[in-house]
Amino acid sequence: MMKKITYLLLVSLFLSACGPLQTIQMATKVQNDQKKAEAKRVAEGRPAKLTQEKDIYKPDGVRYRDKIFSDFDQTQEIFLTNLPTWNGGKTNLKIDIFSPKNDPNPNGRPCVIVYPGGAWIALGKEGFKEFNSELAMRGYVAITGDYRVGFPQADKALMCIGDIEKNMTDAAIRGFQDTKALIRHVRANAKKYGIDPNKIFVAGESAGGANAVGAVYLQDNEIPADVLKRLGGLESVGNYKNVSSKPNGIISFAGPFIGSPDMMEKQDVPVYLLQGQCDELIPWNYSQVFPYCKNNSKIPKVTGCNAMYSRLKEVGEKVWFDIVCGGNHGAFSSWGFVELNRRLANFCYLVMNNQFQTGDYIFIPDMSPCPEKTFPECEKWLKK
Length: 384
Prior knowledge:
Blueprint: H1 3-17, H2 20-43, E1 72-84, E2 90-100, E3 109-115, H3 128-136, E4 141-145, H4 154-157, H5 164-188, H6 190-193, E5 195-205, H7 207-217, H8 225-231, E6 249-253, E7 271-276, E8 286-288, E9 301-303, H9 305-314, E10 319-324, H10 337-352, E11 359-363, H11 379-382
Parallel strand pairs: 3-4, 3-5, 5-6, 6-7, 7-10, 10-11
Antiparallel strand pairs: 1-2, 2-4, 8-9
Helix pairs in contact: 1-2, 5-7
């Protein structure tokens, strides 16, 4: 879903960590691995590109799990205007709304807000039309939302340059504010969008997943006082301040919690997590983001999905963790486009039907960027 932006992030990583020859060799290896994966899919009779895959149309299937519609509608609108940006400017935030075409039951539908990643540097929206349209054809209303991105020296952050701790934390808080504002907006306009205000899910990859997690588990009293003074509280942006911004479930594909695990307390919000245990950008447990930045002390520490899973179980939250053994930061692509869409839809379906339970699943991909490295959770992968 985010193949292009993931590749660009990797190239930036290589440039910061290696010499010119190593950089070329590593970048070439990434490209060759992608070509091998595409060739394997073709040999299996599947499209080469993951975003080209489509699920099977099942008109008699189960709504919200199966693809029961053959087409979708897409509209776009601006939901917030004149928001302050990091550099003193103003911006508007748009949303793209996907819904089933010719829906005989156009009211009371669940909504999934899906956020792209991009390290709060840029919005990596490639593949989101395909992903959200598939959700819509399962019966959901799927919304891709903008959020504010950018911060001082953002173009150099992946090369370990600048006060990343301060600048990225500010950018993350803006992202959380925008996420909470969109949840309130959608809930307040539930009738307009034909959704159930008590069935709003928020999903995202990387920074988008962090937005989903942060909008639930970070509280104003946990934000540094100087940041709170500079940017305002988490509910300070947008309209409908009397409407709840708590979603009914969240999904994070390799998106961390911006803070330590002990800051996360039970919120009675079901959680679905997915991360590769060889993620080169986000830690598996609680550690600094961009772990290859060895010579910059101004790097924020974040909580990866493994530590989140442990903490959320500890406080009694219902949480599911899909572990991709040997998977990198783009490990969610290892599932294939269709399977990832199915798993997200299945999570929402189970939550809505009070059938969701805590647990985990270990997935073993065809290839790994770190075959020599593992964690106890992935012993099964080692024996392959």
